[in-house]
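tool=predict chain=A
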Amino acid sequence: MSIRIRQASVADAAPLLELFKDTIRRVNCRDYAPDQIAAWTSEILPEVWAARLMSRWCAVAANDAEQPIGFGDLEANGHLDRFFVHADYQGRGVGTALMTAIFARATKQQHARIFSEVSITARPFFLNHGFRVITDQLVFSRGAAFLNYRMERWL
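tool=predict ok
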């Protein structure tokens, strides 16, 4: 399988929202309770999702059939907001290809560091890609509490 990295377009909004929800339901469910998963994936307005997606640089990983199999978005201040790999493509190099593209973009934008709030599930992947934990934190969203980690990587 080849992985092609490209910049997201508005046409990617709906497929990436489905990838996001599906990955949380099928992968992050290992580390979060059903009520947390339900809160994490609910009440997302497609038009708000699309606007947010287009407000920043977003790398999309596509498979041979040009279907999105992962994405990561980088804000202008170096914040890596969302980073998800399709449940069926975990452990196949998609995340590494995306992270490489994000590092390249951050370097091009002259960021000294990338920072993110990382799930329990994604923490090992981020550690393996040079990030360090700044602190763990409890965040509240849609009535649920979530443990995650503030992490950073200096470039």
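DSSP finds five helices and seven strands in the chain. The longest helix spans residues 94-108.
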